[in-house]
Amino acid sequence: MEANTMFLIKALFFVCFKVCFTLASDPDPIQDFCIPKQITFPHHHHPFSTNLPCKNSSELTTEDFVFSGLKTAGNFTETGLSTVPVNPTTFPGLNTLGLSFVRADLKPGAINPPHYHPRATEVAHVVKGRVYSGFVDSNNKVYAKVMEEGEMMVYPKGLVHFQMNVGDVTATILGGLNSQSPGIQKIPSVVFGSGINEELLVKAFGLSLEQIGNLKKRFNPVMSNEH
């Protein structure tokens, strides 16, 4: 009986290990590349799916593998942050290759607020400027420093990270992620803009109901548009 129990435990552990390993990253491509055909996505279809039909190689040109959208910054928000995401939706040549990129520009004093990518590790390269950059590990230890031009930092998968321009000029950062669909969750928006019960937030942060309400108005797009 004990031997059977140990066998079941080992079998369960093996299955769990295989499943977790399989889901840990994008699937390996089964061909050189797959430029997806232009189709209309149903409302339930994920635009980053690796199961889209591919164009015939005879239809492809070099331009299918070139993206020029990172030459300039995108539109800046009121907080001084601009981001240009690059994924298979904007650059179909990345489809099935397990990669995505982002260009971030921060005006002096601007921040890229604490956030994390649930499905990818990120490497951030400072192209221009001086940026206070770092991440927090699962023991709540902060690893951060002021990054100079030409330096890069890695943000391990699933860990909260952040950036702040501490220089006198607009800073430019180029980030590379090892998933074509890394996902992103910004901590302020997740906590105060997702509809979590206000009583819970009051107890969690020791703030008044009015203070919680003000934060929810700031980080909840729907509430912001209503006021």
Task: Report on this structure.
The chain is α+β, with helices and mostly antiparallel strands and 227 residues long. Helix content is 23%, strand content 25%. The protein contains five helices and ten strands; from the N terminus they run αββββββββββαααα. The strands form two sheets. A five-stranded antiparallel β-sheet has the order 1-2-9-4-7, with no helix packed on it. The chain has a five-stranded antiparallel β-sheet with strand order 6-5-8-3-10. Strand 5 and strand 6 form a beta hairpin. The longest helix is centred in the N-terminal third of the chain and has 22 residues, at 2-23. Mean pLDDT is 85; it is low at 5-24.
Shape label: globular
Q: Which strands sit side by side, in order, in the main sheet? A: 1-2-9-4-7
- Count of runs of 4 or more consecutive helical residues: 5
Q: Report the radius of gyration as a whole number of Å.
A: 21 Å
Mean of the pLDDT scores?
85
Q: Into which percent range does the helicity of residues fall?
A: 10-25%
Structural class: alpha+beta
The proportion of strand residues reads 25-35%
What's the arrangement of secondary structure elements?
Elements: H1 2-23, E1 81-86, E2 100-106, E3 111-116, E4 122-128, E5 131-136, E6 142-147, E7 152-155, E8 160-165, E9 171-177, E10 185-186, H2 187-192, H3 198-205, H4 209-219, H5 221-226
Antiparallel strand pairs: 1-2, 2-9, 3-8, 3-10, 4-7, 4-9, 5-6, 5-8
